[in-house]
Amino acid sequence: MNFSYDIIVKKITGQDILDALKFGKRTLPEPNKKFPQVLEIVYKIDIDISSSVIIGDNESFIRVDGERRVYEVKVNEEPLNLLK
C-alpha cells in the first residue's frame, strides 16, 4: 500500500469545515473509506437523518439540500463560526 505524506495548507471558512464534515459522513451508517480525519474538531451526527448532500458526477461536493445531520461542531472547544 502506498501513502502520500503531502501537507496542504489552505484558508477556509467555518462553512467549508461543516460542508467537508457533511460530505465525509454522508454514507453513515454504511462504511466509507473516505472518512475525514480531523484534529481538535468534535461534532455530533444524527444517523437517523438521511444525508442531504448533493454530489456531482465525479463524486465532488455541490451543496447540502435538506436536513442537516452534522451538528454541534466545535473547533478547539469553541462553537464553529460559519463565517470565520
Largest sheet: 3 strands, antiparallel
Q: H/E order of the elements?
A: HEEEEE
Identify the strand order in the major beta sheet: 1-4-5
Helix content: 10-25%
Number of discrete domains? 1
Q: Give the radius of gyration.
A: 14 Å
Mean pLDDT: 86
Strand content: 15-25%
Helix tally equals 1
For the termini, the CA-CA separation is: 37 Å
Shape: globular
Derived from helix and strand composition plus strand pairing, the structural class reads: alpha+beta
In the predicted model, the low-confidence regions spanning at least 5 consecutive residues are none
Number of strands: 5
Can you describe what's shown?
It contains one helix and five strands, in the order αβββββ. It is α+β, with helices and mostly antiparallel strands and 84 residues long. The protein has one domain (14-79). Strands 1-4-5 form a three-stranded antiparallel sheet, with helices on one face. A hairpin with a 2-residue loop joins β4 (70-75) and β5.
